């Protein structure tokens, strides 16, 4: 009985993806934890993470991504960025590094709307998340933040759109975070099966 319980605790906290088809190891190890260690992230690692964003593909090579960043080493800057977080995302203040992704919503070459700007910013963020794993770090993205406040306190120009907040750091002790968050971390990592989202011929015929 004890062994069963012990095993299920271990299994609950094994956050590695269990893919139906083999994928890159770095992808299986990416997940979005709530427990962060306060230890600062080395600047070289952060530069490599943003370098990964830099080399993402984008429509017309527009590279519409921008990132507002803050590390705990600069407390006022960190608190300014953390102040836009939604109450439900205050846990992210325990991460040593925060970033806000911002999208340029018009093309530079002709000023027309870039329908895929947010797609491209998301793609850059995905690169970052995988690079973070390769660096021994974790990354947790958040939609829950006050975009109007962000625009106001940073003076973000009208042709840019705040997209997501990003917490980056070393994984922390999971027994030190509030039970409500731990419960979320313990949830199994569920994914739709491919036939529910990969179609062929006609909508929604499974591939
Ligand atoms: C764009 C985006 C917005 C998200 N917003 C939040 C958020 O506001 N708060 C939160 O706790 N998690 C947020 N998440 C994390 C997701 O809940 C998480 O990625 C999802 O449950 C899948 O879990 P996994 O990343 O561990 O695979 C967000 C993730 C993404 C990509």
What does this structure look like?
- This protein is of the alpha+beta class and 207 residues long.
- It has one domain (24-196): NADH Oxidase, CATH 3.40.109.
- The protein has helices at residues 2-12, 25-29, 43-54, 75-82, 117-134, 147-154, 179-186; strands at 65-71, 97-104, 138-142, 160-169.
- A four-stranded antiparallel β-sheet has the order 1-2-4-3, with helices on both faces.
- The radius of gyration is 19 Å and the shape is globular.
- It starts with a helix and ends in a 21-residue tail after the last helix.
- The mean pLDDT is 95.
- Bound molecules: flavin mononucleotide (FMN).
Number of helices: 7
Mean pLDDT: 95
Order of the strands making up the biggest sheet: 1-2-4-3
Task: Give the end-to-end Cα distance, rounded to a whole number of Å.
Answer: 43 Å
Radius of gyration: 19 Å
Order of helices and strands: HHHEHEHEHEH
What is the helix content? Answer: 25-40%
Query: How many domains make up the 3D coordinates?
Result: 1
> Which structural class best describes the helix and strand composition?
alpha+beta
The CATH architecture term is 3-Layer(aba) Sandwich
CATH topology group: NADH Oxidase
Main sheet specs: 4 strands, antiparallel
CATH class: Alpha Beta
Compute the number of strand runs. 4
Bound ligands, each once: flavin mononucleotide
Which blocks of ≥5 consecutive residues have pLDDT under 50?
Answer: none
From the spread of the alpha carbons, the general shape counts as: globular
Relative strand content: 5-15%
In CATH, what is the homologous superfamily?
A: NADH Oxidase
